[in-house]
Write a structure and sequence with these properties.
The chain has about 500 residues and is α+β, with helices and mostly antiparallel strands. The chain has 2 domains: about 10-45 and about 75-290, no CATH class; about 300-500, Alpha-Beta Complex (Sulfite Oxidase, Chain A, domain 2). The chain has 15 helices and 12 strands. The strands form 3 sheets. It has a 5-stranded mixed beta sheet. Strands 5, 6, 9, 10 and 11 form a 5-stranded antiparallel beta sheet that branches. Strands 1-2 form a two-stranded antiparallel sheet. Helix 1 (about 10-35) runs antiparallel to helix 2 (about 85-115), helix 4 (about 155-175) packs antiparallel against helix 7 and helix 9 packs across helix 10 (about 275-290). The longest helix is centred in the middle third of the chain and has 29 residues, at about 195-225. GO terms for molecular function: electron transfer activity. It is a multi-pass membrane protein. Its main location: membrane.
Length: about 500
């Protein structure tokens, strides 16, 4: 075998790994999109203003009568990862794939420049433009350029690969992180520069379509244009085409194995969704600890978003409690909240204190404009007014010894449970870092008016560094606890229990 210096082992290995990971990224991304199959450019996500949708459902114009979970579509496990309306696991698999894809990409780029092989891909002369145009005209005529143009790539390939590696892939990363609450709440100017949350989401989708199109075209041309040479280069790193048939067999078998692996991941996840959540959420937490947990929100000190950005429409997830679910909340609502109570508690010592809405409003208030994002993809911008959670907790004294978390209960119930058991009371647990953030508040006003019923009246939690599933509506109690493993299913919240979300909602 005569080794081809343009296709060393490290390059072929990272190329194969990249193919597998992009398949995981695309399939988990489709699962995420299916949970909110609409795309907007405007951040209030008002009904009828989508620029693209993958559903025939028409949205009601009235707020609070249609939740985003009602809009979710079910994908086959053959298409989505994992499929079957599992947005939590889809997000975890997307996170795992992103981490591995970025790591593999960094290895590839570093070695590309360290070995000097970057000259194969990055054009160094303007001659590449007319040469690439000439190649394109050949393809448009349904012919193939001569093998002598591939040294190892022709000009059109060089432009295409440079665009994908150094523009398209980074754009996927930059628009992806812009959808993380931890990034938005710390660097709101960056997200607004991309057109807000929905702008970033739509740009991410467009980049995904381009990447998927490139993969299909790239794989197709590998087989159709001088396939014998391509196969031995990619499989064996050889120059001679003597083993082309063997290379073809290995290549096809590898692609089939990759497809089977993608599908197997879906069915493995669906076979035991709790196990899959532990595995994937545990892996993605590594990335959150390294890159997100140290970011502190500053929405109350920013000026990127102002009252001019306030949304005309606000989606919701979850409907207000009914009389069967919470007669106490219904009675308080019907008396204009005179009977409303919040219980502050310490589960370690068994002590508690009760506040009414007037007591809450007597505490020092904070007000800021912030973008609310749901893990499904919708967003809305509002001015929130309330009291800092840490000030509220001070009313029952210093943090108890051994207390590591705060549990916030709702008068409402979960929308549904992933294992179809009866709906359970909604709760969320916050870690100490989130509890003491300036922008973690109990809000009782939105846009200068009392909080709307469907958005959590009379008081709801706001934790701007996290997605909305951590922000409990219709608060009934706030308690110091030792360990969230002792509550519910031990995952740290109802959306973690019912939809297998991550305890850490920063991305």
């Amino acid at each position: 075998m005569e080794i081809n210096p343009d296709f060393p082992l490290w390059l072929r290995a990272t190329h194969l790994i990249n193919f597998v990971l992009i398949g995981m990224l695309l399939r988990s991304g489709w699962e995420i999109l299916s949970s909110m199959p609409r795309l907007w450019w405007r951040n209030d996500c008002a009904p009828g203003t989508e620029w693209l949708r993958f559903t025939r459902r028409r949205l009601p114009q009235e707020e609070g009568v249609y939740t985003s979970l009602m809009d979710e579509k079910s994908l086959s496990p053959l298409i989505g990862l994992p499929g079957r309306e599992n947005i939590g696991l889809g997000r975890h698999w997307h996170g795992v794939s992103v981490m591995l894809w970025v790591l593999n990409g960094l290895v590839y780029v570093v070695l590309l420049f360290a070995t000097g092989l970057w000259r194969r891909i990055i054009p160094t002369s303007w001659d590449v433009l007319p040469e690439a145009w000439e190649t394109l005209t050949v393809y448009l005529g349904f012919e193939a350029p001569g093998i002598e143009h591939f040294t190892p790539y022709d000009s059109l390939q060089m432009l295409g690969y440079s665009f994908v590696i150094f523009i398209l892939a980074p754009s996927l990363i930059l628009t992806g992180i812009a959808m993380a609450p931890a990034i938005r709440s710390r660097f709101p100017w960056y997200v607004k520069m991309l057109g807000g949350h929905q702008g970033a989401r739509s740009l991410h989708f467009i980049a995904m379509v381009m990447m998927a199109g490139f993969v299909v075209m790239h794989v197709g041309l590998v087989f159709l244009v001088h396939g014998d040479h391509n196969m031995v280069h990619m499989v064996f790193g050889d120059i001679s085409t003597a083993r082309a048939a063997q290379a073809y067999t290995i290549m096809i078998a590898t692609i089939v194995a990759a497809v089977l692996f993608w599908i197997a991941l879906s069915y493995w996840s669906l076979a035991d969704r709790a196990r899959a959540q532990r595995f994937t959420a545990g892996l993605t937490e590594i990335g959150r600890k390294l890159f997100l947990n140290w970011l502190r929100p500053r929405m109350s000190r920013q000026n990127a978003y102002t009252d001019k950005d306030i949304s005309a429409f606000h989606w919701t997830n979850g409907l207000p409690p009914t009389v069967d679910e919470s007669p106490e909340w219904i009675e308080a609502r019907d008396t204009d909240w005179e009977g409303y109570r919040i219980t502050l508690g310490d589960d370690l010592a068994g002590t508690e204190k009760t506040l009414n809405l007037a007591d809450l409003k007597e505490l020092p208030q904070v007000s800021y404009v912030a973008v609310h994002t749901c893990m499904q993809g919708w967003s809305a911008t509002s001015r929130w007014t309330g009291v800092r959670l840490r000030d509220l907790l001070d009313l029952i004294g210093p943090r108890p010894d051994g207390a590591e978390y705060v549990l916030v209960d709702s008068y409402g119930l979960a929308q549904e449970m992933f294992d179809n058991r009866p709906r359970e009371p909604f709760y969320a647990v916050l870690d100490l870092a989130t509890v003491y953030e300036d922008d973690t508040i109990v809000a009782f006003e939105r846009n200068g008016e009392p909080l709307e019923t469907h958005l959590g009246a009379p008081a709801r939690l706001r934790a701007e560094s996290n997605h909305g599933y951590k922000m409990v509506k219709w608060i009934s109690s706030i308690r110091w606890i030792r360990d969230y493993a002792d509550y519910g299913d031990g995952r740290g919240g109802t959306r973690e229990d019912s939809a297998l979300q991550a305890f850490n909602g920063r991305i």
